[in-house]
Amino acid sequence: MRIREVVLPAPDPEAQAAWHGPNYGASRIRFEPGPAVCSHFAVNVPPQRFEEAVAWARERADVEHDDVAFPAWRARSAYFYDPGGNIVELIARERAPGEELFLEISEVGLPVEDVDAAVEWLEEELGLPRFDVDPGRFAAMGDDRGLLIVVPVGRPWLFTDEPAPDVPLTVAIESGREAELVVPGSAHVLKLGS
């Protein structure tokens, strides 16, 4: 799965956009007026440039965890907060190589009322495979290039005390069909298209 654009809420969208810049490799990030909440997204970086990406983050923010191993995912990550309070992850995946420092946005957190119902819908409606699932509590749907991270509303994001917010996000996904869908148990919008 390829995530083309992510739209997150922010009290000051212009400041957030200026801090991040418009693109993370093949993906765009945008901010629209909304409450100050802690959303989560991850950016793929090449394994051979992981330390360089972490150094980039250190110049801009306090890196909370700078080298977290995820053996089952064949990946390592670093985490930091952006000025709007979102938890951002830089992740180097062995199965997602590349050359540019930022390859694409590879994860977006989608808090929902019922994880299992959302997982079933994502499988049936979008054909997304289960990448990693803990029934009722967590699901990573997609592949190494793009994952929707489905969690219950209110569950703290990994390595934080920040609850996953009940605030709608918009995620544009590359697809062979054009559609705008709402994820069950939420107001998140998935825009499908080329």
Summary of the model, kept short:
It contains three helices and 14 strands.
**Helix fraction bin:** 10-25%
Return the CATH topology: 2,3-Dihydroxybiphenyl 1,2-Dioxygenase, domain 1
Rounded mean pLDDT score: 97
Number of helices: 3
Largest β-sheet summary: 8 strands, mixed
Can you tell me the CATH class? Alpha Beta
The total number of structural domains is: 1
Q: How many E-type strands?
A: 14
| Strands in their spatial order, largest beta sheet | 5-6-7-4-8-11-10-9
Rg calculated over all Cα atoms: 15 Å
Describe it:
- This protein has about 190 residues and is mainly β.
- It has helices at about 15-20, 50-60, 115-125, and strands at about 5-10, 25, 25-35, 40-45, 65-70, 75-80, 85-95, 105-110, 130-135, 140-145, 145-150, 170-175, 180, 190-194.
- The strands form 2 sheets. It has an 8-stranded mixed sheet, with helices on one face. Strands 2-3-1-12-14-13 form a 6-stranded mixed sheet.
- Strand 2 (about 25) and strand 3 form a beta hairpin.
- It is globular.
Provide tags for this entry:
194 residues; mainly beta; 2,3-Dihydroxybiphenyl 1,2-Dioxygenase, domain 1; 6-stranded mixed sheet; 14 strands; globular
Blueprint (SSEs and pairs):
Layout: E1 3-10, H1 13-20, E2 23-24, E3 27-33, E4 40-45, H2 50-58, E5 63-70, E6 75-81, E7 87-93, E8 104-112, H3 115-126, E9 130-134, E10 138-143, E11 146-152, E12 170-174, E13 179-182, E14 189-193
